[in-house]
């Protein structure tokens, strides 16, 4: 028997062979003009990102983590403040909160969508108040590329006078009932880490907002809190810029991004049709569109390791996002969880497993994956 070739989890090479020529030419143009910091491609990309999602402003920056940090600094989040976020997320969501000295308060998620529960948020706000913290900000995460339930979350936040910062590191390009990710809450943070749906060739991120005052503060914070120029310092800031070379790469990748999203959506639909009888497949509520940063299925606890091992033996990679929730991690276990606990989160960390997903997953390759999953779970 000839071994089948290994399948990549995210196939950046296929995208590279499609876009290689135009990306190389775009990078070469930057090498020629030499404006490596905040060159013309940065502004060009920012106007394209804003237009893409319908936000008034986009500000590119050095990573998704820094995009979140810039907004926390701009909003003056400080010690004594409670910031509500899920525990079922990548660590950066809560890390930035703790790094500015505030307290992340962990909120449970909904099993079907993996995203923040509005009822859980209500409980989290009550918990923070009981602990003597000042409720200050809500950070819903659009996990795996699916927008959080903004119609439920925004009214709860508003009732308590809390601004909402959307962690859209995995969901740029997704939509929620006719509105694009990037237009919810006071600001949206996204990431261009290479493995994200829209990735560059290094670290990168952006903040999207409609707020004219906020964007000016963010622009200042991105360059050491500059005032009229970078040697006029009116606040403490960061080295938070996106490299011009990365902006040039992203401009080329943005040209095919809608097509790639459509291809991801077809691949997700094929997985769902083929696997719904052997696993719990991800739900997309009516009117929402995911960009499928991950295609994540759920299995009864204890079944995941065998699936991963059986697939690995056939050259098919899988990943577990996330094997431990943040409140179960050494660095975060001393932060408060909402009263009533995080039962759904604690169940999901034992159930989830993600399958290969990207915009270049051809039918033959996906057929191989589907067959192998069905055999392993059969
Ligand atoms: C990737 C990610 C981040 C951080 O983005 P970086 O660009 O890697 O800094 C933040 N939040 C979530 C949910 C992410 O998936």
TrEMBL record:
User: Pfam families recorded for this chain?
Assistant: DegT_DnrJ_EryC1
Q: Which domain of life is it from?
A: Bacteria
Q: Which residues carry this modification: N6-(pyridoxal phosphate)lysine?
A: 196
Please provide the record's keywords in A-Z order: Aminotransferase, Pyridoxal phosphate, Transferase
The catalytic activity of this protein is classed by the Enzyme Commission as 2.6.1.87
Gene3D superfamilies named among the record's database cross-references: Aspartate Aminotransferase, domain 1, Type I PLP-dependent aspartate aminotransferase-like (Major domain)
Q: Which GO terms describe its biological process?
A: polysaccharide biosynthetic process
GO molecular-function term, one example from the UniProt record: UDP-4-amino-4-deoxy-L-arabinose aminotransferase
Active-site residues per Swiss-Prot or TrEMBL entry: 196 (proton acceptor)
Q: Does the keyword Transferase apply?
A: yes
Q: Which family does the similarity line name?
A: Belongs to the DegT/DnrJ/EryC1 family.
Its name, as the record gives it, is: UDP-4-amino-4-deoxy-L-arabinose--oxoglutarate aminotransferase
Please give the organism.
Answer: Blastochloris viridis
Upper classification of the source organism reads: Bacteria, Pseudomonadati, Pseudomonadota, Alphaproteobacteria, Hyphomicrobiales
- Designated gene of the protein: arnB
């Amino acid at each position: 028997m000839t071994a089948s070739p290994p399948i990549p989890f995210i196939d950046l090479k296929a995208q590279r062979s499609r876009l290689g020529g135009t990306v190389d030419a775009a990078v070469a143009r930057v090498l020629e003009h030499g404006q490596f910091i905040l060159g013309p491609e940065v502004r060009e990309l920012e106007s394209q990102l804003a237009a893409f999602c319908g936000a008034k402003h986009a500000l590119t920056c050095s990573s998704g983590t820094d995009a979140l940090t810039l907004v926390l600094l701009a909003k003056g989040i400080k010690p004594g403040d409670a910031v509500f976020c899920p525990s079922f997320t990548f660590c950066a969501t809560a890390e930035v909160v703790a790094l500015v000295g505030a307290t992340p308060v962990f909120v449970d998620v909904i099993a079907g969508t993996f995203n923040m529960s509005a009822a859980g948020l209500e409980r989290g706000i009550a918990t923070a108040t009981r602990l003597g913290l000042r409720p200050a900000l809500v950070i819903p995460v659009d996990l795996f590329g699916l927008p959080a339930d903004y119609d439920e979350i925004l009214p709860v936040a508003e009732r308590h006078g809390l601004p909402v910062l959307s962690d859209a590191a995995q969901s740029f390009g997704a939509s929620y009932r006719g509105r694009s990710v990037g237009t919810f809450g006071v600001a949206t943070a996204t990431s261009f880490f290479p493995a994200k749906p829209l990735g560059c060739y290094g670290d990168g991120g952006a903040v999207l907002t409609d707020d004219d005052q906020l964007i000016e503060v963010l622009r200042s914070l991105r360059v050491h809190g500059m005032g009229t120029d970078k040697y006029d310092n009116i606040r403490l800031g960061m080295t938070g810029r996106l490299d011009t070379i990365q902006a040039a790469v992203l401009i080329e990748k943005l040209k095919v991004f809608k097509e790639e999203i459509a291809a991801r959506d077809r691949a997700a639909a094929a997985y769902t049709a083929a696997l719904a009888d052997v696993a719990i497949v991800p739900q997309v509520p009516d009117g929402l569109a995911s960009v499928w940063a991950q295609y994540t299925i759920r299995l009864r606890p204890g079944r995941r390791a065998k699936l991963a091992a059986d697939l690995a033996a056939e050259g098919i990679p899988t990943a577990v996002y996330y094997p431990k929730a943040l409140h179960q991690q050494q660095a975060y276990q001393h932060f408060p969880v909402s009263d009533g606990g995080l039962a759904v989160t604690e169940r999901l960390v034992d159930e989830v497993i993600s399958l290969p997903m990207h915009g270049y997953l051809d039918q033959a390759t996906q057929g191989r994956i589907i067959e192998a999953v069905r055999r392993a779970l059969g």
